Amino acid sequence: MEALLRGTLAVDGDGCVQAKTAGDPVTLVWPRGYTVRGDSRSFEVLDGSKNVVASSGSSLAIGGGGADTFSDKWTERDCAKGKLWLVGGVETN
């Protein structure tokens, strides 16, 4: 969980939060307790304490690591498609 992903926060046509990168979009798997508030044009990601950690269109450096499969214990199973990234930490630019 020490890798770094750089991208821009966006939402896909299904309402799933992704990081747009130089390559293919990456589906972000947030830690338990994180939520999204807003809609597909303007949204914020909140941590378990309801603090805003990222917002739509933000350039981000996201710590964590890639995953090959989606665990049954994770939330947002409907968003499990394409490349997956387990979010460990977020730094906005």
How would you explain this protein's 3D organization?
- The chain has strands at residues 3-11, 17-20, 26-29, 35-38, 43-46, 52-55, 59-67, 83-92.
- By secondary structure, the protein is mainly β.
- It has a single domain (3-92), classed as OB fold (Dihydrolipoamide Acetyltransferase, E2P), CATH 2.40.50.
- The strands form 2 sheets. The chain has a 5-stranded mixed barrel with strand order 1-2-3-8-7.
- Strand 4 (35-38) and strand 5 form a beta hairpin.
- The radius of gyration is 12 Å and the shape is globular.
- The two termini are 20 Å apart.
- The mean pLDDT is 84.
The general outline is globular
- In the CATH hierarchy, the architecture is Beta Barrel
Q: What's the total count of β strands?
A: 8
For the CA atoms, what is the radius of gyration?
A: 12 Å
Helix content: under 10%
Chain-wise SSE layout:
Layout: E1 3-11, E2 17-20, E3 26-29, E4 35-38, E5 43-46, E6 52-55, E7 59-67, E8 83-92
Parallel strand pairs: 3-8
Antiparallel strand pairs: 1-2, 1-7, 2-3, 4-5, 5-6, 7-8
Question: Which structural traits does this protein have?
Answer:
93 residues; mainly beta; OB fold (Dihydrolipoamide Acetyltransferase, E2P); five-stranded mixed β-barrel; three-stranded antiparallel β-sheet; 8 strands; 0% helix
